[in-house]
Design goal:
Largest sheet: 2 strands, parallel
Distance between the termini: 70 Å
Strand content: 5-15%
Number of helices: 11
CATH class of the largest domain: Mainly Alpha
CATH topology of the largest domain: Helicase, Ruva Protein, domain 3
Strand order of the largest sheet: 1-4
Helix content: 40-55%
């Protein structure tokens, strides 16, 4: 019967990546510390020790110093891991990484799901870059996989393929969505105010292309034109890009 190697022994001579190390229970933290200090392990049911040569990279999105102060993470393990710290900013502060990551995930899931999507349209990339990505890289990865799975014969992912929540982000471009004024209180006024701002925001993302905006809003273009008239913003939209 073949013996199964543990993670450390399997990584001997190489690198072991420990993700979300902050989630380790305190009893497991002490065991990890012992391995890092002694560079040895002992297999279950054996008295023999195995010497290790493993580079350990640990990652977390939790403030470990705060966890140490709260007695939820061992200080000795923290200092043992914190030899060469690399602080990676959130994705919203690394806008240039978004197209590269999105294309990488697209190629990965193309192979996994046997699809042939070539890439993203410029407007789709621009929208991805404006979104704040509260879930960081994992959220982007999950979104790209969803787009690949749901695509049919699309050669490019365009604005019409993107989920509507990307256009409702209140912190795009670092600005909060305009708050509703006191004189707009009342359900009808609130609904109209939100609808107007959301339609204008969507049109701006599509470079004032009403056909593309209607696709994103999942309504007919004629319905969008009627809404522009009812909300008294049709002239404003036409001044931006005519009746396109």
């Amino acid at each position: 019967m073949a013996r199964t190697l543990g993670k450390f022994e399997h990584s001997n001579g190489g690198t072991l990546f420990l993700d979300e190390v902050s989630a380790l229970r305190l009893d497991l933290q002490s065991k990890l510390l012992r391995v890092l200090q002694d560079k040895q392990i002992q297999r279950i049911g054996s008295n023999k020790t195995v010497t290790l040569d493993v580079r350990v990279i640990a990652a977390t999105n939790i403030d470990l110093e705060k966890e140490v102060r709260g007695n939820r993470f061992r200080s000795d393990l923290y200092f043992r891991l914190n030899v060469v710290p690399i602080h990676l900013p959130p994705l919203r502060k690394r806008k240039n990484d978004i197209p590269l990551l999105a294309q990488f995930f697209l190629e990965t899931y193309n192979k996994h799901h046997n699809k042939k999507i070539e890439g993203f349209s410029p407007n789709a990339f621009a929208t991805l870059c404006k979104y704040s990505w509260p879930g960081n890289v994992r959220e982007l990865q999950n979104l790209v996989e969803r787009l690949v799975v749901l695509s049919r014969q699309d050669r490019l992912i365009t604005l019409s393929n993107l989920p509507i929540e990307l256009f409702m982000d209140g912190k795009q471009n670092g600005q909060e969505v305009e708050e509703i004024r006191d004189d707009e209180l009342g359900l009808t006024k609130i609904k109209e105010g939100f609808e107007k701002r959301f339609i204008l925001q969507t049109l701006e993302k599509t470079n004032w292309n009403q056909t593309e905006a209607a696709k994103i809003l999942k309504i007919h273009r004629n319905t969008l034109v009627k809404k522009l008239t009812r909300l008294k913003i049709r002239d404003k939209v036409q001044s931006k890009n005519g009746d396109k």
